[in-house]
Write a structure and sequence with these properties.
With about 280 residues, this protein is α/β, with parallel strands linked by helices. It folds into two domains: about 200 residues, Metal-dependent hydrolases (TIM Barrel, Alpha-Beta Barrel); about 60 residues, Orthogonal Bundle (DNA polymerase, domain 1), CATH 1.10.150.650. The chain contains eleven helices and eight strands. The chain has an eight-stranded mixed β-sheet. Helix 1 packs across helix 2. It is globular and about 50 Å long. Bound molecules: adenosine monophosphate, fe (iii) ion (2 copies) and zinc ion. The site of adenosine monophosphate (AMP) has 10 residues, from helix 5 and helix 6.
Length: about 280
């Protein structure tokens, strides 16, 4: 049996609508999924409705991926099973989404200065009304204009960390995100530790922040040389283990379709059941 607990939709920077995600889950035979849009939880209702009206037996877990900053590094916190009406959590996500718009404006300004024509309106249009604007939207606009061959090329040339149009964003600390999720009755996970690119920093985070678990299975582990034993790290810290494909639907980064990065249901059962081992 399969599960996928890290999926993006058009409600953040994913390409597929919640309905398309459910259709893909059905085709791939995935028994349990969590949509984890960046700083946005609105896709859940659309996905739940689709499952209900089509009488599908897919288990849907409430999820989110919250952007935080730790010592100047992007640290993503995955949350599951929280109360979707919890006001402090909703307000914190709204605050981060406003910060995203401010940052996107700055990035666009830099890209314009580098000689590439792009406007905030074009980025908003590409985002199809998503309230959680992100760099992938910028990348897709530049690809559609024929200025780059694929989104990864835009990141590599302009907007990845350290590239000339990159801008940092003021974000909350990982501990704040974890506390918010806990107060909303949820559980909190350190997302894709391999992407942090510094195992010592991951250890420090796990020692200092009250995470319930860590995302052990994620496509970023496929690129690690040498591979790191994240399962052992999770065990050492007494953590639940999670896993997901981080599907966005952008060619060139992570899987393009659900099911391409299979994760065993058994490995992430603790997350699905929402309790500690
Ligand atoms: P943002 O939320 O604006 O910081 O953008 C982060 C998103 O951009 C991630 O969730 C990925 O979808 C994508 N992303 C981040 N870094 C890269 C990279 N180096 N190459 C391609 N895509 C990336
Ligand atoms: Fe993303
Ligand atoms: Fe992430
Ligand atoms: Zn993600």
């Amino acid at each position: 049996m399969l599960a996928d607990l890290h999926i993006h939709t058009t409600f953040s920077d994913g390409v597929y609508t919640p309905e398309k995600i459910i259709a893909q889950a059905r085709v791939s035979g995935i028994a349990a999924i969590a949509i984890t849009d960046h700083d946005n939880i609105q896709a859940y209702d659309r996905a739940a409705r689709t499952i209900h009206f089509r009488h599908l037996g897919i288990q849907l877990i409430r999820g989110v991926e919250i952007d935080t900053d730790y010592k100047g590094k992007d640290v993503h916190v995955l949350g599951y099973h929280f109360d979707p009406e919890n006001q402090p959590l909703l307000q914190a996500m709204a605050w981060t989404r406003v910060g995203r718009i401010t940052r996107i404006r700055k990035i666009i300004q830099k890209i314009n200065q580098l000689g590439y024509p792009i406007t905030l309106e074009e980025v908003r249009e590409e985002a199809h009304g998503s309230k959680s604007l992100g760099r992938p939207h910028i990348a897709r606009v530049l690809v559609k204009k024929g200025l780059f061959s694929h989104t990864q090329a835009v990141f590599d040339a302009l907007i990845a960390s350290g590239r000339p149009a990159y801008c940092r964003q003021v974000k909350m600390q990982p501990k704040e995100a974890v506390d918010l999720l806990h107060r909303a009755g949820g559980i909190a996970f350190l997302a894709h530790p391999a992407e942090i690119g510094n195992p010592d920093l991951v250890e420090e985070l796990l020692d200092r922040v009250p995470f319930d678990g860590m995302e052990v299975w994620h496509p970023s582990i496929l690129k690690e040389k040498p591979p790191h034993d994240w399962l052992q790290v999770a065990k050492n810290h007494g953590l639940l283990t999670s896993g997901g494909s981080d599907l966005h639907g952008n060619p060139g980064r992570f899987p393009l379709h659900l099911g391409e990065f299979p994760i065993s249901y058994e490995n992430v059962k603790g997350v699905i059941e929402g309790k500690k081992i």
